[in-house]
Amino acid sequence: MQITTIKIYGFGKFHDTTIDLSNRFSLLYGENEAGKSTLVAFITSMLFGFATAKHRYAMYQPKQGSQYGGELTFSHAQNDYWLKRVDGTHGGAVTLRNLTTDTALSKDDLTQLLQPLNQELFHQIFCFGERELQAVFDLNRFDLVKRIQRIGAIGSENWIGLTQELTASAGELYKPRGRVQPLVRLLKQYDELSEKLDTAKMQFQQYQTLQTDAAETTQELTAVQQQLANLTDQLNQYQRLIKLYPQYQQLKTEASTSETTPITTKDWQEATRLSTAVKQLKRDLTTQEQAIKQQQQHVASEAQQFYNAHQQQIDQLAGQISAVKQLQQRQQQNETQLANVKQELEKLNQHYGTSLTNLKVLTPSEQQQIKALFEQQQHLSIERDSRADQRQEHQKTFEKLRQQADADTSSGMAPKWLIAGVGIVLVALFALSGLLRTVGGMIGMLVAGYGIFKPIISGNQQSAIDSQMALLSSQLDQDRQQLADLDQQLIDADAEVTKFGAQHRLQGFAPERWLDLQGDLSLYQAASTQQIQLQEQQNQLSQKIQTYLAQWQFAGDVISLGGSTEHQLQQISQFLSERQDESQRLHWANEALTTSTQRQTALQQQYQLQQGALTQLLSQYHLASFAEFEQRYQQDQTTAQRNQRLGVLNAQLTQTDRQILADSGSQEALEKTSQQLQTQQLAKKQRQSELLKQSSQQQYQLQHLASSDKYQNLLQQQADLQAEITSLTDDWLTKKLLINWIDQTLINASQGRQPQIIKVAEQFFNELTGNRYRQIIFTDQTVQVVRKDGLTFDVGELSSGTAEQLYVALRFAFTKVMADVIAMPIIVDDAFVNFDRQRTQAAVKMLKGLAQTSQVIYLTANHDNLTLADEDEVYDLDAGKSV
């Protein structure tokens, strides 16, 4: 598998990020916190599923609110795939598509594609990081040898961790040279207590004799128990061989070879892929044929058939409908304008209380003429009023003079003036004195003199009044004549105005409104003219629309023409729209039919190609069908499993077992020997029982003799210590046996892959050490390397740096061997941070060599490492782009 593109919607610190991994070797650079470990988690999560809420820190929820998930584009087994995984249940919602065959796949197909890997195995085999190498750096030499010996076992990291925990736990119970461990302290107390007990026992003579007898009994009992144990082992061995004898016979008689060539797993996978592709192509062809049948059912309607028959004529008319609709819109607009004009004309008629239809607008000269007449009337009227006022003033003056003349003529001396003068003189004489009396007397005399001489003075004034009255009389006659002339002029002017109004039909209006009427009359005539023009346009538009509709009468039955003009145009538009839609649908249907036919041809070609490849592969094994191929493969697998079981049986039989089986010759002989051993075992058990009974009696007698309180207390303390020591010893032995079992199991698991791993590791180790070492040797106890000059070194004799290089070489050799079986990308997450420059260069060179067969993704925070890769192989995580 090779990942070609990574697209992250949102995962941890990443959002809307695309990374191109089209090269077999890719170096992804980023400072600390740039997201290298997050990127590794994204790749594994996309392949095997997102972490659940139970492990929320491993979920890497987006930090900027983007959609959780992303896409992977990868190639696998000569097919290109597109994988999308977003937030959802059970590890996320998966969308998988085979881009090569353009086939949609399910989440189960992805699981099948990745088998037998799961997320844990993928990390253990194909992911190598700083933490793992740092853990190796921290190991002592003994633990490093154990780690290297077990490198071929999948999951060995967990088991080695368990053995370390068990070793530490066992060391807390007992160490051979320890002092503070519980079992060490109890054993020391037991030795001290045994010495005290021996001292107490020696105090009795009879006890000593019994002790001697008891020792002999114990010695004989020990010998019998040893013999019984040997007999038991022999009996167990024979019983085990009796059970294995049928398989042993099968091992001897059955041959693991076959006359036919066994089917390889690679060919079986290829045949399975081809068979699956052929079946899928058959289903696709069936689906395509059904789709073609459905698409062929698309038939034009009767209206569409009529349209197709008259398409040229209809398309020509359809090209005019836009213009006709514009005519209709203009017609509607004209109707609106006509209504407005009529309303305006009616408003003017109502305003003047009569129709203005027969009136004409006065010309400028006529308006000037009537204005002059109006001004003349106004001038004459003003002048007449002025003359009338003047005559009235003259008349008033005349009347006043006449009254004055009448008064002066009828009176003589003025007694009033005379009496007043006399009175003033009397007042001055009697009431005043001095100058005032003189002045008052003079005034009185003057007033009295005026009264006496007033008639003489009045006679003179009368002459003047008569003269004035004669003059005013003449003036009044002139005023009368002027008024008569002005009245005549006013009559003549009114006649001219009346004549002008009659000539212009303005009799129905007050003359003072004639000039004001001209503006509204101009509007009225303009509106009337506009009304006539609009009506003519309406007639023309209606004629054009009717002419256009008449051209559609040949399709009247199909379109259902009838009703108003607007309705008919709507029917025509709807007909054209329906025909256009149906034509488009038929066009799409024809295109879909063409595409489906082409797709069917392509599928048939793919089917023939895949079927031919499958037939050719089956012919290599002289088989006619995939069912026979599958059956043959299962038979080959059964044979391989049987051979494997026989190999396991062969590994279970020791050289002694083989010798016994060869000497016995038959299962009956084994059973006869087993019966003899059972007889001997029974006899030994009876003797053991007798000796145990005898020993018990002797021990009882010894205990009876040692009946002192001190001795009994010592015995009780010894029993308590024995119980406690036994419990701790069982716990310690359990841990040690489990450690030995795990170590042996890991060694056995590694040995199956060691030849391949060692061969690849020798090449890697040679490159990492600058060609200083040429061979790696595994033994039961240690790992050895052979230097270029032929000297052999145990791992414990190597420097720490060289031992670490050996581990790296073996670790990547194991990954390469597994990658040859399960093709997956190899991810190295800053694993060489503690390497010097020379070792890092050698390690990157090794990774590039490894990239020839497997994709390698190397993540690093060391900027100097950028010089170790080509520019097109480097991607800068901080900058978000290729360097």
TrEMBL record:
- One short Pfam family name for this protein? AAA_27
Transmembrane stretches, start-end: 417-436
Q: Which InterPro entries match?
A: P-loop_NTPase (IPR027417), YhaN_AAA (IPR038734)
* Basic and acidic residues composition bias: residue spans: 381-405
The residue ranges of the YhaN AAA domain are: 1-206
Q: Give UniProt keywords alphabetically.
A: Coiled coil, Membrane, Transmembrane, Transmembrane helix
Residue segments, region Disordered: 381-407
Query: Which segments of the protein form a coiled coil according to its record?
Result: 183-241, 271-298, 324-351, 469-496
What's this protein's name? DNA repair ATPase
Which species? Secundilactobacillus pentosiphilus
Give the source lineage, highest ranks first. Answer: Bacteria, Bacillati, Bacillota, Bacilli, Lactobacillales
